């Protein structure tokens, strides 16, 4: 059986080794980057940013050893210069699409697609520095629920907890986050070493001041402290200045633990995932997938220096057979060649979950979204098979975007693939 990860990317992009070069040659001169910033004077008074009261939230961060892919060979001076120029430009473009004040909502779903929690959030993003020393500074504000000790009959103004996200620069996006970035399409994938930020949103937004920091608080499901994979996939709206940032959280054994979504709009009021798209019930979610989808895919290797590995024209046909099974046929033809890959999948549908025979599952979500992952990543790694995580956003019945993050047999992110498809 063809591994699931190999069916979604063109043939020439498969099997990218974990040591595929995603940084400058080791012979290139080292650059010094500014030290990480834990507080920014320009944000010391959050009320000037969004105009609401905030409370500072101290977070203890563990310093973890990052896994960085090593360069396999030296490159020529001319090529090296081109790569440096392109990477700096890509970093600036990545920062540009993130800048501003984002109003949003944070949604937590279980592995079966059931909504568990909703939290109001705001994100302020700015930059400092120039050229290769530029950095992205982000501060997240989390709306807290009323305290259980509040005075009856007294309506206090909502409080927002402040969380400073670790800055993003040339060093972090390549070594720690292993970014997969598509500037023109405004899409990106990131790796997280822990789920600390996401746990903070849940604790602050659901428990608020009543959180006594229990390891497993009642009525709240928090991510494992040692997740095997935390992956962010972000797609920007084709209609307005809005985006969806989704997170796969896999538990220590490699099984899907939860799905998290930030749905955010720049400057305007926060969008609502249940009212944004008219496709709400199970039948609508599934019927939205069915039909013939034609489009184009772009695959890039991980890292800020990530060059395009391959492009392909794609056709996906999804239909229900007379036995109630979901049949999916995918054809991918690599651009500039006659290489074509055909893959046939058969799946069963149970509520919000589509389970394919090859060990891959899709979780159908509100707002024209679904998220896909292996049923058991640990098994894929044990069988020396690559695997992938997928996010799909259908803002309308006839158009969709998909972002696929591919991992090698050792569980290291090696590439990202962006799809734009139209139903015909």
From TrEMBL:
Tree of life domain: Eukaryota
Record protein name field: DUF3598 domain-containing protein
Ranges for domain DUF3598: 91-268
GO BP, sorted A to Z: chloroplast fission
Region: Disordered, residue numbers: 9-45
Domain annotation Biogenesis factor required for ATP synthase 1-like C-terminal: ranges: 287-424
Matches recorded under InterPro entries: BFA1-like_C, BFA1-like_DUF3598, Calycin
Extent of Polar residues compositional bias: 19-28
């Amino acid at each position: 059986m063809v591994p699931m990860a190999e069916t979604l990317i063109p043939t020439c992009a498969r099997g990218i080794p974990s040591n595929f070069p995603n940084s400058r040659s080791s012979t290139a001169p080292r650059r010094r980057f500014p030290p990480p910033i834990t507080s920014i004077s320009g944000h010391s008074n959050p009320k000037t940013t969004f105009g609401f009261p905030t409370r500072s939230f101290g977070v203890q961060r563990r310093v973890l050893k990052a896994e960085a892919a090593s360069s396999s060979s030296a490159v020529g001076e001319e090529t090296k210069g081109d790569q440096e120029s392109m990477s700096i430009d890509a970093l600036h473009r990545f920062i540009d699409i993130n800048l501003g004040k984002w109003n949003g909502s944070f949604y937590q779903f279980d592995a079966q697609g059931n909504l568990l929690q909703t939290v109001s959030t705001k994100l302020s993003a700015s930059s400092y520095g120039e050229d290769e020393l530029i950095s992205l500074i982000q501060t997240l504000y989390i709306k807290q629920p009323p305290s259980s000790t509040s005075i009856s009959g007294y309506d206090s103004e909502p409080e927002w907890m402040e969380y400073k996200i670790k800055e993003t620069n040339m060093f972090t996006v390549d070594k720690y986050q292993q970014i997969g970035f598509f500037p023109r399409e405004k899409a990106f994938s990131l790796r997280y070493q822990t789920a600390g930020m996401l746990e903070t949103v849940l604790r602050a937004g659901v428990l608020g001041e009543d959180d006594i920091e229990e390891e497993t608080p009642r009525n709240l499901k928090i991510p494992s402290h040692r997740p095997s994979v935390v992956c962010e996939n972000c797609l920007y709206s084709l209609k307005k200045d809005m985006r969806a940032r989704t997170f796969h959280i896999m538990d220590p054994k490699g099984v899907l633990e939860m799905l998290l979504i930030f749905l955010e709009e720049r400057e305007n009021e926060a969008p609502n995932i249940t009212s944004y798209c008219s496709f709400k019930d199970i039948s609508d979610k599934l019927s939205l997938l069915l039909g013939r989808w034609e489009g184009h895919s772009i695959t890039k290797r991980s890292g800020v220096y990530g060059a395009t590995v391959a492009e392909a024209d794609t056709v996906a046909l999804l239909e229900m057979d007379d036995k109630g099974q979901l049949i999916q046929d995918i054809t991918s033809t690599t651009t500039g060649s006659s290489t074509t890959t055909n893959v046939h999948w058969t799946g069963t549908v149970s509520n919000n979950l589509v389970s394919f025979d090859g060990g891959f599952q899709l979780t159908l979500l509100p707002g024209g979204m679904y998220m896909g992952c292996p049923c058991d990543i640990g098994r894929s790694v044990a069988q020396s098979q690559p695997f992938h995580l997928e996010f799909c956003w259908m803002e309308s019945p006839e158009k969709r975007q998909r972002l696929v993050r591919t991992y090698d047999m050792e569980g290291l992110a090696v590439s990202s693939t962006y799809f734009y498809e139209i139903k015909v």
